[in-house]
Amino acid sequence: MAEQVPAAAAGTxxxxxxxxxxxxxxxxxxxxxxxxxxxxxxxxxxxxxxxRAVELGVQxxxxxxxxxxxxxxxxxxxxxxxxxxxxxxxxxxxYLRDGPDQWRxxxxxxxxxxxxxxxxxxxGVEQITLYQLHVPDPAVPYDESVGALVALRDEGKIGHIGxxxxxxxxxxxxxxxxxxxxxxxxxxxxxxxxxPVVDLAGExxxxxxxxxxxxxxxxxxxxxxxxxxxxxxxxxxxxxxAWQLARAPHVLPIxxxxxxxHLEQNVAAAALRLSDxxxxxxxxxxxxxxxxxxxxxxxxxxxxx
Length: 305
What we know:
TIM Barrel; 7-stranded parallel β-sheet; two-stranded antiparallel ribbon; disordered C terminus
């Protein structure tokens, strides 16, 4: 079944002024160990997941130096050593890790430079197509952190700049300094606080990359999701992904998994088309968007993504 519904069924999206990719990507956070720390329990399966994603037409893989730390990038390099020409491996820098489920921002320019250069070595590339500031660091002026990425781009070490865990004001502040190819925030039916950022990204020509795209304490939970899934003979997780795809044409979901079976189910969601009635039902049972500032505060406290 999954063979017949590759990621291309979702259409394509441009990463700002950068490359165009199929509009269903893969988030490579969950191919690490518990707490996003250390190696995965089944390294072979993690490698199979990455290779199968490419076979299914996934052209965008999202990772970060902090996933493991370093483990996710190393696995991507191992699994996809000869990168397909149409594959974009995007990574991020700006977090330090002290242990499982522990995240500490570091947006100092010297740290971001070292993080980027480490990612270049681990991924085995001369340039990272899309490099994202993982999180604003309240101890460092935001312009300095973004400016460090501008310098790395000017040196040819990164092709395009992305942002993560930001609010509307921070997107606009970055745009005053540089073109921005993508914005990545937590966003799903259970967490609509980034609605203003999704809209702004579309207005300025950025891709919006939702992390935790299926939401809830358990992926795909909720009566509305279950009801719509039953209508379509799909899973609730597939409906959650299809809702992301229907939200706006510049939204690029990156559901992650450490299982080939779950990967194939996720990619199958690329072909699922929700009706206006489905979307209205889902929207009625999702929380309203809060002010952008309040959303940004929650993101900083979460320190994840």
